[in-house]
């Protein structure tokens, strides 16, 4: 199965596309820029959803659902918001088809034209804040802590499966608060939820930072983000959390009476992660044999492959396997026992490697005699023989080790590919030779940021929130700077 | 809170609308025909989703995700399918907005017109079968057992919150099989899954039946359904399961090589339930005081209301409550302890009645002395005092009793409102006096069915799958009939 998967160091982009396809994660649909998420891919997304949903609920949020359609006039109410999204909107203009008079099929019925065009949500701030106007009268109605799991559409010109698609799945949190401080705390709390999720579930170390004004969400006062490094040295923004200030409250006239009875505009936040995380997961850990999945997100954590000839041998192996399998299931570990006789063990090994199953157990006739099994871990490809007695306990620990090891490996990679530079020449040299995160001084102006972006295709990924103050000079302009920011070429 | 909720027997329709609003389940959005599902309503929907999703997975299905956009040409490939959906399609024609030259806001950019219009999915058969074409070569690729949780859009002219909305949430199963028999078995299996879910979770007895050709899904060979009776005597179709024959396989050229190596078209099914079930749940059980929720779907199963004056008394009550609360939580029962001092116990009682919380526990100073609590059940409004010792065990049993009682009550209602009639005069009389399900003989023709519908607004809800053969004469035409069918006026 894994034969012929392109090598990462030869063509990273082709490797990614082929891996997504061969591991049966997703495929491009005939609808331009849209993807079909196949069952195996979707089951990973479901694990992400479940973990995130629990974290949202543990921090006091509840789910709700708002319409997919946004009246065109709503989008226009927040000036920078419409500026940011107008260029990539799918627009519904009609509500009926009819048979073509010439019998050639169906056509749009020109008589069924909407009075006002509807936009398919690219994000839901406008439709949600228009509802909040009716929900909020006094400080007693605050905070509102909502989340929505939904599909959104942004008509991107250049798409890439999982990373940038016209339609994608995501969650969008939308909260409303009585004070700026509370909204800012919420913004940072959700950033931390995302960072924790990335590190503990995706096994992906991230930099927590704030975007420059140029890179802010359209309509936000501040955009915080988590940034991860992929194996090709490019950065990937894995989640954002926005402090909206009173921008949407003003646009939709959402006021509340505070404890003193004085009217004020409500403070807002929004935050989201999407199926883009699937791309991050794949690109961060996988190798030339296929996916490498952290156990916490693997749909199948353990696969058991019997090595047998004939029914009788399989029956004997199955008897032993059932014991181990039940022990594993009792620990909440997902197990697949692949008894197919239509495929060889070698084929199965390669296929489960391709699919990223963290642990493979093989049991053959000799193991039966010895009361043993061969355990192979996907991340290091290490194989060892263990006694069946106590095997489940060993696997439990092993899964934890694998989760941690995948994280450690990604962290070591990031450390090896994070470079401090002090001159623009060095900056360009590092970008071209190895890429990665480049820490450099910047004068804080949009002009310099734009020039660097134009000349090198590197953007300021973020200003790390835990950055140490350090006096220096902007690598481009030589003007003073008080701390380094993170540059990278990015997805 | 519940003051002023309209009475069911005075204005059922107004009662329903007001209940949806006051119990904070959902509201109409400014976007025509679309609804906002509010957190409390959505948490009930999440419970439905979780239960159904488990049932789907237990029967071998996995989730996937297909694009929301359907190229117009796809919809046209299955003749009766496009016939059924063309009249209610939201059509995307453009992909960009731009600033109006006169500065009046944003307008649709006429230069960003799509080459082919895209339909927002009203259902996904076409986009899914176009993918199946590439997924299926041989019998080894079958069956495909997929489900999708998604939003769909049908541009209905007359909408009603939860029951009929332009956008709604649903799940749609789409399966592909090697034989007609297997597909038919799948169709009936999923009908039974829906019926079991309705009866065991919604506490709603349903009739399992098959639709007449007139009422079939557009593109199906057979449409099976579950039909429930609401308290106003109207029927509600709560779920459908379609045997698609080879219709979509032929439309999208999905062929497979069978075991003998011969090419044949694949056999299909599709099946779905939607947020309409929320409407069914509300209308079947609730009363003039508010929602009545079956415990299995109640977001809060038990609410504990302390009756106290001052912090000290509350602290003493809380101490006792924590013990009971932990015992309940350990049993997997959801509990809310409402310690707010901003609202009176009476206000809280009425509010939780409105919200349909199945069990309310009240604890006051006298209970503290006696080691007791007052337990009120929402369904019968019965109140009793119990010892705190052993209370959790009692509540556990009580929740099961309530679940069963709500079902029994709905079943008794249905029995009392199911009438056998043998003449058309009697038929009309029953429909006008009490409504309900009317069992009558029908000659099997679409003509008779249409006339009865036009004259009485009653439709054939289904031909029950377990109907006993019974020779008789069509109540309208007098022609022979071999069994009774179920008529009703319906939502």
Write the layout of secondary structure elements.
The structure is a homodimer.
Chain A: H1 12-22, E1 26-28, E2 35-37, H2 39-58, E3 62-63, E4 69-71, H3 72-75, H4 79-85, E5 91-94, E6 97-99, E7 106-108, E8 113-120, H5 125-135, E9 144-153, E10 167-177, H6 180-200, E11 207-210, E12 222-229, E13 235-245, H7 247-251, E14 255-257, E15 263-265, E16 267-274, H8 276-285, E17 302-306, H9 310-330, E18 335-337, H10 345-355, E19 359-363, H11 365-370, E20 372-377, E21 383-387, H12 391-416, E22 418-420, H13 424-433, E23 437-441, H14 446-456, E24 459-464, E25 472-473, E26 480-481, E27 484-488
Parallel strand pairs in A: 3-9, 17-18, 17-19, 22-23
Antiparallel strand pairs in A: 1-2, 4-8, 5-8, 6-7, 9-10, 10-16, 11-12, 11-24, 12-13, 13-16, 14-15, 19-20, 20-21, 23-27, 24-27, 25-26
Report what the structure shows.
Two copies of one chain form a homodimer. Chain A has 491 residues and is an alpha+beta fold. Chain A folds into three domains: 12-68 and 136-285, BirA Bifunctional Protein, domain 2, CATH 3.30.930.10; 295-402, Anticodon-binding domain (Rossmann fold), CATH 3.40.50; 418-488, 2-Layer Sandwich (Translation Initiation Factor IF3). The longest helix of chain A is centred in the C-terminal third of the chain and has 26 residues, at 391-416. The two termini of chain A are 28 Å apart. The interface between A and B is large, with 62 and 62 residues. Strand 5 of chain A pairs antiparallel with strand 5 (91-94) of chain B, so a sheet runs across the interface. Chains A, B: Its EC number is 6.1.1.15. Chains A, B: It is an enzyme of class 6 (ligase). Chains A, B: Residues 39-294 form the Aminoacyl-transfer RNA synthetases class-II family profile domain. Chains A, B: It is found in: Cytoplasm.
